[in-house]
Specification:
alpha/beta, 12-stranded mixed β-sheet, 13 helices, 18 strands, about 40% helix, about 15% strand, binds NADPH dihydro-nicotinamide-adenine-dinucleotide phosphate, binds 2-oxoglutaric acid, binds magnesium ion, Isocitrate_DH_NADP_dimer_prok, metal-binding
C-alpha cells in the first residue's frame, strides 16, 4: 500500500496478531519508528544502531529489523505541512504494524497543541503505560541502597484529568460549564467562578478494571509479591476512590482474592507458583515518601494517569534518573514503546543526553516480540557499559572516576561490550 510520505521498506513483513492475541513475529519484521522532537534526533538514531547490533550479534543474520520511519510532532509539520502534527497515516501504520517505538514529542505549556503523546495513546487505545524501575549496578543514585527499588508501574493511560478535557478561564465554555455546575448541580464550592478554568476528570470502572487486570496478571506471570493501588481517594472519592474500590473488587471477582483481617487489603495464591500475592493500596502523597523510605515493600504499582506520570519520574530518580527510564504504551494488541523522559530541549541536537531510556524501551520491545536473546544482550551491554564508567553527562556528574562520553559515544560503548 502506498502512503503519502511513509516509505515502506522493500524487504520485511508485518508483525501480526494471532487469534489468541499472541504475536506472530517474522524473522524480518518491519518496525515503524517516530524519531521524536528535541533530543529525539540524538537518541533515536543511537537506539536504532544499538538494537541492530544486538539483533545481528544474537542471531547472526537470521533475524533483522527493517525500520520504517513514520512521522509525528515537529518533523511531521515539515514533511506534511505546517499544521499536520499527527498524520492519519502515522496512526494507521502504528495500528497495522502492531509494534512500534517512538522518541519524545514536545507539548507546549499553557496554549498551543495538546499532547501528541496522549493523542497517540488515546487514538490507539494504548491503555497501559508500563514503566519498569530497575537498578543497574554502578549507576549513581541519591539513595544509599538503590537496589531495593524494584518496581513496575502500571499507569492507566487513557483517562483521568490527563484526557485533556478542560476549558480556559473566562471562555464561553468555561462559563457554560460553571453555570451548569452552579445552577443545575447545586455546586457552591467554586471559589472564583468568574475567573476559573475548568478541568474534567473521567475515571471509569472499565478503564480501571482493564488496567488493574493487567497489573494483577503481570504479578502472576512474573512471580511478584504484591500489587499496590495508588490513589488519592480520600479527597477525590468517586474518581480516585473509585479506582481503589474497583481495583479491590476486581482482585476478588476475577482472581479470587480474600480480605486480610477484614480488608481492604486482600490476597490470593499465584496459580503458577502457589505463592501469595497481596493486593494493597496507598494514598499517593504517603506513597511518595514510602518509596523513598521503604522501597522494598512495593513491587507492582497500579495507578491513575496523572499519579503514574509523577510517580514514574520520582521512581526513575531513585535508580539514577530519567536518562535510564524505559516504558511501553500497550493495548491488548498494539504496543508503542517510548522513554519516560521528554524532549529535554536545551540539549537537542548536541549529541549529549543519555540514550539509555530509549534503548531500554527497545529492549522491552525485543522482549515483547519474543527476541529474548537480543533483549538480554542489550541489558548485558548496558550493565557492562555502566561498569566501564564510560557514561553520559547525567551519570558522569555523579560518578567518581567516570569518563564522560557523548550520546552516540555511549551507544558505541554498548556495542563494544556486546
Ligand atoms: N513521552 C513524551 O514524549 C514526553 C514528552 N515530554 C515533553 O518534553 C518537553 C520537555 O519536558 P521537561 O519537563 O523539560 O522534561 P524532560 O524529561 O524533557 O527533561 C527534564 C530533565 O530531565 C533530564 N533528562 C531528560 N532526558 C534525558 C536524557 N535522555 N538523558 C539524561 N537526562 C535527561 C534532564 O535533566 P538535567 O537538566 O538535570 O540535565 C532534563 O533537563 C515538554 O514539552 C514535555 O511535554 C515530557 C515527558 C514525556
Ligand atoms: O505528553 C507530554 O508531553 C508529557 C507526557 C508525560 O510526561 C508522560 O507521559 O510521562
Ligand atoms: Mg511524564
Amino acid at each position: 500500500m502506498a502512503y503519502q510520505h511513509i516509505q515502506v521498506p522493500t524487504q520485511g513483513q508485518k508483525i501480526t496478531v494471532n487469534a489468541d492475541m499472541s504475536l506472530n513475529v517474522p524473522d524480518q519484521p518491519i518496525i515503524p519508528y517516530i524519531e521524536g522532537d528535541g533530543t529525539g534526533v540524538d537518541i533515536t538514531p543511537v537506539m536504532l544502531k544499538v538494537v541492530d547490533a544486538a539483533v545481528a550479534k544474537s542471531y547472526g543474520g537470521q533475524k533483522k529489523i527493517h525500520w520504517m520511519e513514520i512521522f509525528a510532532g515537529e518533523k511531521a509539520t515539515k514533511v506534511y505541512g505546517p499544521d499536520v502534527w499527527l498524520p492519519d497515516e502515522t496512526l494507521k501504520v502504528a495500528r497495522e504494524y502492531v509494534v512500534s517505538i517512538k522518541g519524545p514529542l514536545t507539548t507546549p505549556v499553557g496554549g498551543g497543541i495538546r499532547s501528541l503523546n496522549v493523542a497517540l495513546r488515546q487514538e490507539l487505545d494504548l491503555y497501559v503505560c508500563l514503566r519498569p524501575i530497575q537498578y543497574f549496578a554502578g549507576v549513581p543514585s541519591p539513595l544509599k541502597e538503590p537496589q531495593k527499588t524494584n518496581m513496575v508501574i502500571f499507569r492507566e493511560n487513557s483517562e483521568d484529568i490527563y484526557a485533556g478535557i478542560e476549558y480556559e478561564a473566562k471562555s464561553e465554555k468555561a462559563r457554560k460549564a460553571i453555570d451548569f455546575l452552579i445552577k443545575e448541580m447545586g455546586v457552591s464550592k467554586i471559589r472564583f467562578p468568574q475567573t476559573s478554568a475548568i478541568g474534567i476528570k473521567p475515571v471509569s470502572i472499565e478503564g480501571t478494571e482493564r488496567l488493574v487486570r493487567k497489573a494483577l496478571q503481570y504479578a502472576i506471570d512474573n512471580d511478584k509479591p504484591s500489587v499496590t493501588l495508588v490513589h488519592k481517594g480520600n479527597i477525590m472519592k468517586f474518581t480516585e476512590g473509585g479506582f481503589r474500590d474497583w481495583g479491590y473488587a476486581l482482585a476478588k471477582k476475577e482472581f479470587g482474592a480474600q480480605e486480610i483481617d477484614g480488608g481492604p487489603w486482600c490476597r490470593f495464591r499465584n496459580p503458577k507458583t502457589g505463592k501469595e500475592i497481596v493486593v494493597k493500596d496507598s494514598i499517593a502523597d504517603a506513597f511518595l515518601q514510602q518509596i523513598l523510605l521503604r522501597p522494598a515493600e512495593y513491587s507492582v504499582i497500579a495507578t491513575l494517569n496523572l499519579n503514574g506520570d509523577y510517580i514514574s519520574d520520582a521512581l526513575a530518580a531513585q535508580v539514577g534518573g530519567i536518562g535510564i527510564a524505559p516504558g511501553a504504551n500497550m493495548s491488548d494488541t498494539v504496543a508503542m514503546f517510548e522513554a519516560t523522559h521528554g524532549t529535554a530541549p536545551k540539549y537537542a541536537g548536541k549529541d549529549y543526553v543519555n540514550p539509555g531510556s530509549e534503548i531500554l524501551s527497545a529492549e522491552m520491545m525485543l522482549r515483547h516480540m519474543g527476541w529474548t536473546k537480543a533483549a538480554d544482550l542489550v541489558i548485558h551491554s548496558m550493565e557492562r557499559a555502566i561498569q566501564s564508567k564510560k557514561v553520559t553527562y547525567d551519570f558522569a556528574r555523579l560518578m567518581e572516576g567516570a569518563t564522560q562520553v557523548s550520546c552516540s559515544g555511549f551507544g558505541q560503548v554498548m556495542i563494544d561490550h556486546m
